[in-house]
Amino acid sequence: QVELAESGGGLVQAGASLRLSCAFLGRTFSTYIMAWFRQAPGKQRELVATISPGSSTNYADSVKGRFTISRDNAQNTVYLQMNSLKPEDTAVYHCAARHYSTSEYNYWGQGTQVTVSS
Fold first, then answer.
1. Quick one: pLDDT band at residue 60, thresholds 50, 70, 90?
2. I need a surface site. Which of 34, 38, 62, 91 has the fewest CB within 10 A?
3. Confidence at residue 61, expressed as pLDDT on a 0 to 100 scale
4. What pLDDT does 39 receive?
5. 74-107: b (≥16 Cβ within 10 Å) or e
6. Closest by Cα among 59, 100, 53, 63 to 83
7. Residue 37 and residue 49: Cα distance in Å, rounded?
8. Residue 8 has pLDDT above 90, yes or no
9. For 68, what's the count of Cα atoms within 13 Å in the CB-facing half-sphere?
10. pLDDT at position 1, please?
11. Dmax (CA) of the chain
12. Residue 65: which of 57, 75, 55 has the closest Cα?
């Protein structure tokens, strides 16, 4: 079983930075693809960024150049560095994990709120 625990959200002004962390507990972290999703009120969940066990990354167009996903396989942690935050980045951010051999994210954290004021 895998457990995920996010931290690092908060209320910031537009243009500020935040770093989210997600602690991975359970199985072998280095065999899991990790992702950050977000969901704003009244909107569909959006895939923000992914990182493979080998640290290959992908980003949503809306965050490219501003957000950076990274992982520390020794600390079993994945990060999301968010710079130049905009009000439209306001959402609950969830960490998710899937084993590299599967196609669906079946482990989710409880989420952390990020609010960006204008």
1. very high
2. 62
3. 98
4. 97
5. eebbbbbebeebeeebbbbbbbbbbbeeeeebeb
6. 63
7. 7
8. yes
9. 9
10. 87
11. 42
12. 57
3-class SS string, the chain: CCEEEEECCEEEECCCCEEEEEEEECCCHHHEEEEEEEECCCCCCEEEEEECCCCCEEECCCCCCCEEEEEECCCCEEEEEECCCCHHHCEEEEEEEEECCCCCCCEECCCEEEEEEC
Structure tokens belonging to residue 87: 């009000």
Beta strand pairing call for 112-117 and 10-13: parallel
Q: Residues in the chain, how many?
A: 118
Q: What is the pLDDT, as a whole number, of residue 116? A: 98
Give the tokens for residue 2: 């895998």
CB-based contacts of 63: which residues, under 8 Å, 6+ apart?
48, 49, 82, 89
Tell me which residue has tokens 């969830």.
Answer: 94
Confidence of residue 27 (pLDDT cuts 50, 70, 90): confident
Tell me how far CA of residue 30 lies from CA of 10, 24, 34, 49, 53, in angstroms: 28, 10, 10, 17, 5
